Amino acid sequence: MVPVSGWLLGVAGRKRFYMTCVALFTASSLLGLKVDWQGFVLVALFLGYLEIVLDEGQTADWFSSTFIVISAVISAASFLAFVPWELSRKDPIVDIRLI
Fold first, then answer.
1. Among 3, 26, 52, 84, which one has the highest count of C-beta atoms within 10 angstroms of its own C-beta?
2. Is the pTM of this model over 0.90?
3. In this structure, is residue 99 part of a structural domain?
């Protein structure tokens, strides 16, 4: 989903990206598909805030900025919650056992 969502965000903008996320959630609910939403949220937080840290860190003077420190803490906490969560799921959104 990440490559498609990135492409969609670049081409269509944020509104359509969010509409696609809502459509995905609705379709999975209606079709009875099992999706690890907690894992999805954790990996989205981890990667999203990591991207913010890496993208904005240089312009914000890295860890001198409170915003970058908070973003790094959220990213690290999300990662630390994500790993045991995915290891304990029968059908994880990202099977990290393969790594």
1. 52
2. no
3. no
